[in-house]
Amino acid sequence: MTTTTASAQPGERTVGKSSPRTARGPRRRPGRIRRIGLPYLLLLPALLLELLVHLVPMVIGIVMSFKELTQFYIRDWTTAPWAGLDNFTMSVDFDAPVGEALLHSFLVTCAFTILSVGLCWLIGTAAAICMQDAFRGRGLLRAIFLVPYALPVYAAVITWAFMFQHDNGLVNHVLHDQLGLTDKPSFWLIGDNSFVALLVVSVWKGWPFAFLIVMAGLQNIPKELYEAAALDGAGVWQQIRRITLPSLRPVNQVLVLVLFLWTFNDFNTPFVLFGKAAPEAADLISIHIYQSSFVTWNFGAGSAMSVLLLLFLLLVTGVYLFVTSRTARAPRNSRERKTADV
């Protein structure tokens, strides 16, 4: 479009008419910039909190792992002498007492994590499948199942600590006094039974999360698949194996990873259940790092152990995501090949 300008007489103002596109151009740009910058502005508080709460302490911990930081330098940790890789070398020297204790704690944590994640997933998935069909009282049962997940961790674990007491605990009262399954009351918070007590508490408070996630994933499976499978003569177990579990594969991949990271890093449960000094059978690596840092006052070694733990979790997470992505991509490629052949 052309711009027309009226002829101006001396002393008169020149009035010009321009196209709507030219007139609105300067007004659109600030609005577009505002729309583009709004998401970043909304994310800014979360990014600042993430920076202050996680990233800055992480960087400080990594720097501390390279220093000989003991109780003599707590007042000003920046003046601690530089230790280089000595803290890491001491931590991975499995022939020395420090490395041997760390290796034992690592193996206990791996066994505890595998059992806890497996039982949480199994119980949560079974409960979610049982709650899939509508029946009277289903909403009440779902609410009851979520009670352990809704309770504060400290309140729940302290309650279990009282139940595991040797003389007047509910567990010994039921197993020994009522059912007669044991010859004498057992010690659950010390000795080898401490691992079982820790596992029971972890599974009790962890399986409702798996139940909640799996129950949400089941809502996306069409009921027509089950109806067609029933018409073909498939039983309940065949429907679960052929329809439910394959359909839940993306949900289970995320669920297992989250449960693994939470359980492997769990500090609140063993700390509240056993205190500062956990029994040898339940010496998780989180408690072990705490003892190395705040009991022996060797913050350099404790920071080095934390960095090693971080590297291990990053490695496991990367391998897990790589394997699961390839597993999910394999059926898709096979279907595409079959379609191409046809």
Number of strands: 2
What structural class is derived from the secondary structure elements?
A: mainly alpha
Strand arrangement within the widest β-sheet reads 1-2
Secondary-structure element series: EEHHHHHHHHHHHHHH
Rg over CA atoms, rounded to whole Å, is: 30 Å
Distance between the termini: 56 Å
Biggest β-sheet strands, sense, barrel: 2 strands, antiparallel
Strand content: under 5%
Shape: globular
Number of helices: 14
Please describe what this structure looks like.
- A two-stranded antiparallel ribbon has the order 1-2.
- It is globular, with a radius of gyration of 30 Å.
- Helix 3 (97-130) packs across helix 8 (193-218), helix 6 runs parallel beside helix 12 (268-274) and helix 13 (285-295) runs antiparallel to helix 14.
- The protein has helices at residues 20-64, 86-91, 97-130, 138-145, 147-150, 153-163, 170-178, 193-218, 223-231, 236-247, 249-264, 268-274, 285-295, 299-341; strands at 4-5, 16-17.
- The longest helix is centred in the first third of the chain and has 45 residues, at 20-64.
- With 342 residues, the protein is an all-alpha fold.
- The model is unreliable at 1-8 and 10-23 (pLDDT under 50).
- It has 14 helices and 2 strands, in the order ββαααααααααααααα.
Could you give a quick summary of the protein structure above?
70% of the residues lie in helices and 1% in strands.
List keywords for this structure.
single chain, 342 residues, mainly alpha, two-stranded antiparallel sheet, 70% helix, 1% strand, globular
Topology overview:
Blueprint: E1 4-5, E2 16-17, H1 20-64, H2 86-91, H3 97-130, H4 138-145, H5 147-150, H6 153-163, H7 170-178, H8 193-218, H9 223-231, H10 236-247, H11 249-264, H12 268-274, H13 285-295, H14 299-341
Helix pairs in contact: 3-8, 3-11, 6-12, 8-11, 11-14, 13-14
